[in-house]
Structure formats: structure tokens, C-alpha cells
Amino acid sequence: MKNRFKKGLVTLVLSGLVTFSAGTAWAEAVQLSLEESINMALNNNKTIKVALADKEAATWKVNEAKGNSNINIAARHSTARYRSYNSTKTAYGIADLYSNSITASLPIYTGGKIEGAIKQAEVGAEIADLGLVNTVQQVKMDATVGYYNILQANNLVQVSQQSVDSLNEHLKNVKAQYSVGTVAKSDVLRSEVELANAQQNLIKAQNNLELAVSSFNNIVGLPLETEVTVKDELKYQQYDKSLEESIAYAKEHRPDGLQATKSIDAAKAGVKVAESGKLPQLSFQGTSGWSNDEFPGTHYSTWQVAVVADMNLFDGNVTKAKVRQAEASLTKSVEQANQKQDVIQLEVRQAYLNMLEAEKRITTSKVTVDKGQEDFKIAQVRYSAGVGTNLDVIDSQLALTQAKTNYIQAMYDYNTSRAKLDKAMGIAVL
To answer: How far, CA to CA in Å, does 240 sit from each of 35, 237, 352, 418?
Structure first.
């Protein structure tokens, strides 16, 4: 992952690319493109804000770990009262003692403890950074799918409306022919039933559109009641990568896969930290102190300079237990990384194959729509000429509506599968 991308991503989230806000009261409909929708979601999503906080905490964790390798200076003051005896040990009095000291310490050798802790913190910061990237990619996919849901629902409303309009016109034709006695009453009744069914389907489609808009608003951070109109359309654009190329790309770029790999590095550093308990610890220490019986205690200066060596001889196998725990964590990290790669390959394969399947349905359903439109026109002409039946017209209309629905579903499935494939591959947002 390139640093330029990471910096750009954080800048996007922190500064914002759009001026929309979740707290804005929208009096009018909002018209959005797909790109604008994604940017809005990135700016308003609370999960991203959590990931940013994790990233900041991890950065300060690195500073903390590095700080342990630097000189440490501490000041101390104590106030004490004690009982004093004379030389015969018979008479005594109460005396005060005020003490002050400044101690400086610098680690010289820690058996790899400090170095291991720094490595762990640095890897942790990289993992948090990748976590932010993964969160952003998830939000992008959610916003994209939410946008496509509106497009699909809107298209289905149009199809349902077209069906209602066609059946309504057909009913007028049937009634006109019934009035002159050329068709039976049953034709009128059947046409009215089919029109009523189409009207119910239209009501359901309109409700699904409202639900899709509400769900989309929740994703991008708009008030749920906001009216949203979309600028883009569901489009077909042939994918130019093979399945093998897609899987290879995912192995190199998928952020959660990279997280799992880096967790191995963190676990290795953890083993070194644990093993440091078996090695000597060397440090330089210097102390200067002042004390007397008058506050704040500034006389009788003393000082000390020393090199201190600590060696753990026996600790009840505590160090051994820590090493074994760290080694077990390393083994776990390796297995989890392998498992994550399997999951990544599966997700890429599923999204890719679903995309190919939808692509094939786009071709077949488009042909079906063209043929269905022609069949419906022929059925209308034949019925008006008295050589066709009312059932032929109704059946051809239902078939045409189903063909249009299938085409819309195929386009939706193709586009959503591509969005899921982008997420599965770890394709960058910026």
C-alpha cells in the first residue's frame, strides 16, 4: 500500500470532499451521482471515525514504545516525622526530615525487550492503518450497493408503470369492442383483473423504492426522510481481468489480508519481548539528593552514579510461561493468515463468478425484451383485427413485463457483483 494513497485517504476522511452533513435538514430533494454518494458516506460514517481513532491511538503507542529507550528523569520529595534519642537513649524528641532527589536512568541493554516492543507498536500502527483502509472500502461498497438499490427500484417502478399504462389502454380497447358486441363480457372482466394486479405491483414497487432511499440515506448519513434522486444509471461495462488476475491482485492488496500477514510480524516481536525475561538487563542510573530538617530540604547534598545489572535467576517459570504464550500466539497468527487467504480467494471467486453469470443473463434477457415487445405488438394487432384472443394480449404483456424485470435484475446483479469484487480484491477508493 503506497503512502500517498494512505495520506490521501486520511485527508479525504478528515477534511471531506463534499459539504453535505448528516445534521442538515433537507427541505428539497437531493440529486446525487454515485461518486458524490460515496464521498458523502465516507465523510459521515461513524465506523470510519472509530477506525481513525484506532489509527491515532496506535501512532501514540509507537511514541510510547520508543520513549522507553530514552533517558528517564524523575523528581521525588518526601516529608517525614520521626522520633530521635540522645546518646544515653533516655531522652527523645520529635524531628522533621525533608528529602528531595532527582534520578536519571537510561537503559543500556534489555535483551531485546524495548526493540521488540517498538516493533510490535510499529506493526500495530500499520495494522490500524490497514484497518482504516478496509473500513473505507467497506463503506464504499455499502454506498455503491445502496445507490444501485435505488436505481433498480426506480427502474422496476417504471416497468410497473408501463405495465399499468399498457393494460389500461388495452382495457379501453376491450370495452370499446364489447360495447359493439364483438367480444364477450369475460374479456372485460379478465382485463380489469389483470390491470388491478398490475396496479398492486406498482404500489409494491413504489414502496420498495421508498425503502431503498431510506436505507441509502442511512448509509450516507442523510435524514431518513430525505428525497433522493440519482443521476447515474445501471450500465454494463465488460470486466478486463481474469479470475486468476483478480485473485493475484487481492493477495497483494486486500487490506485485511495484509493485516493478517503483519500480525505474524507482531507476534514474532512478542516472542522476543517474552524471551528478554531470560536475559540480563543493564541500565545507567544517576541520583542526586538533598535533605534537612527545614522545608523544603536543600542541604546535605548526596549523589550516586551506577551501572545496574538485573538478572532473573528464578521466577517460578513465569518467563517460561510468557514465552510459550507468545509462541502459541505466533502459531495462531500464522494459521489465521493462511485462513484469511483462503477466505479472500473464496470471496473473489464468488463475486467474479456471480458477475459472469449476471453478464450472461444481461445478453439473454435483452434479446427476450426485444422479442417480447414485438410479440406484444402482434398480439394487440391480432386482437384488434378479431383474429387473436384477449388472453394472447394479456399473456404477451405479462411476458414482456417479466422480461424487462429479468433484464433489470441482471444489470443490477452485474453491477453489485462488480462492486463486491472491487471490495474482495481490495481496490483502492482513491
So the answer is: 22, 9, 12, 12
